[in-house]
Amino acid sequence: MRLERMLRLVAGALILFSLFSAYFFSYNWLFLTLGIGFSLFQSGFTNWCPMMSILKTLGIKERGEK
Questions:
Q1: 5-50 pLDDT, tens per residue?
Q2: How far apart are CA 40 and CA 48, in angstroms?
């Protein structure tokens, strides 16, 4: 699986997890959603995303890499 696709899957899963956790446990889980949203927002300006660095370290390759 390629890096961009994995990034979208991780972000979506974490957002869904935090929303379900906020509904069933505590509204404080919405801070996780806020953090993910802020990270996605800042990556649009800086072209750097912390999760992409983590995924690259884990061995996920970018499109075109072998």
A1: 999 999 999 999 999 999 999 999 999 999 999 999 999 999 999 9
A2: 9
Task: Please tell me what DSSP assigns to residue 47.
Answer: S
Q: Cα 60 vs. chain centroid, distance in angstroms?
A: 14
Tokens 């979506």 appear where? Answer: 12
What 8-state DSSP symbol labels residue 31? H
What is the radius of gyration, based on Cα positions, of the chain?
13
* pLDDT in the model for residue 19: 97
Domain that includes residue 7, residue range: 3-57
In a domain, 64, yes or no: no
